[in-house]
């Protein structure tokens, strides 16, 4: 049996970009079920038919705002109600932009909320095996200072700190926390990234990596897209 066959995952922001790439990889690798939790169903509506014809009822789309505790917890509930298990929670949804309060709410507060819901309640109760996994998608901005994105940078440093702190107690509820720090990846979020922005990325941080641990559990993933990322594993 493959690692994923008995597993169920929940991926926030899974309707497009990196989150969607994670969802696709999980499905390609035979996961039992995956819940996409996203505030917008626009992207989902364009891929829904393909996904459903290819993967049937292995994919559940849940429209929810992860900054709203009831909606976020409701998404966990719907996932376990549908698939009966939950093994992997990927806190991926994130934003950049001008509204610093919103950036903190999505990139940090909701990641903390998703981590605690997973670690304290849903993974210990519903995992199918001995271990649950939380993957928090931070950024190279969690390790470096991006001159023009101070709040985004602060939130990603927060996500890295969260993983370091919680990962210090490896036995906690038999849940492993993995914080992933990707470099630039072409998605809707990075449409406005310029060559000058890219120069500010310290090449010494280009390293072994992956933007998805789950991908790396089984294969090397897409090396080009992963080539300037770091993995932080605790
Ligand atoms: N693209 C990059 O270069 C890059 C680099 C490093 C880290 N990251 C991080 O990777 C993650 C994904 O980024 P992306 O580039 O795929 O972005 P994206 O904008 O393409 O996708 C983000 C998804 O999150 C969803 N989302 C946003 N706010 C939400 C909310 N409140 N509730 C639920 N869903 C919400 C969006 O609808 C969207 O589907 C983010 O955390 C981002 O900070 C991206």
UniProtKB/TrEMBL annotation:
<protein>
    <submittedName>
        <fullName>Uncharacterized protein</fullName>
    </submittedName>
</protein>
<dbReference type="InterPro" id="IPR002347">
    <property type="entry name" value="SDR_fam"/>
</dbReference>
<dbReference type="Pfam" id="PF00106">
    <property type="entry name" value="adh_short"/>
</dbReference>
<dbReference type="InterPro" id="IPR020904">
    <property type="entry name" value="Sc_DH/Rdtase_CS"/>
</dbReference>
<comment type="similarity">
    <text>Belongs to the short-chain dehydrogenases/reductases (SDR) family.</text>
</comment>
<dbReference type="GO" id="GO:0005737">
    <property type="term" value="C:cytoplasm"/>
</dbReference>
<dbReference type="InterPro" id="IPR036291">
    <property type="entry name" value="NAD(P)-bd_dom_sf"/>
</dbReference>
<keyword id="KW-0560">Oxidoreductase</keyword>
<dbReference type="GO" id="GO:0016616">
    <property type="term" value="F:oxidoreductase activity, acting on the CH-OH group of donors, NAD or NADP as acceptor"/>
</dbReference>
């Amino acid at each position: 049996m493959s690692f994923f066959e008995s597993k169920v995952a929940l991926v926030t922001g899974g309707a497009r970009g990196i989150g969607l790439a994670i969802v696709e990889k999980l499905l390609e690798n035979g996961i039992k079920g995956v819940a996409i939790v996203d505030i917008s169903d626009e992207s989902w509506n364009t891929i829904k038919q393909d996904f459903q014809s290819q993967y049937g009822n292995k994919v559940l789309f849940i429209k929810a705002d992860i900054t709203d505790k009831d909606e976020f917890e409701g998404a966990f509930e719907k996932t376990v109600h549908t698939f009966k298990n939950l093994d992997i929670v990927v806190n991926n949804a994130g934003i950049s932009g001008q509204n610093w309060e919103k950036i903190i709410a999505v990139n940090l507060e909701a990641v903390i909320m998703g981590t605690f819901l997973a670690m304290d309640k849903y993974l210990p109760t519903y995992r199918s095996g001995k271990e649950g996994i939380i993957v928090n998608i931070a950024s190279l901005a969690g390790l470096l200072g991006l001159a023009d994105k101070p709040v985004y940078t602060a939130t990603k440093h927060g996500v890295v700190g969260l993983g370091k702190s919680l990962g210090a107690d490896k036995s906690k509820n038999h849940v492993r926390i993995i914080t992933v720090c990707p470099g630039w990846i072409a998605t809707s979020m990075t449409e406005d990234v310029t060559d000058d922005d890219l120069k500010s990325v310290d090449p010494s941080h280009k390293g072994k990596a992956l933007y998805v641990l789950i991908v790396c559990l089984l294969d090397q993933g897409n090396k080009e897209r992963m080539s300037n990322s770091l993995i932080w594993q605790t």
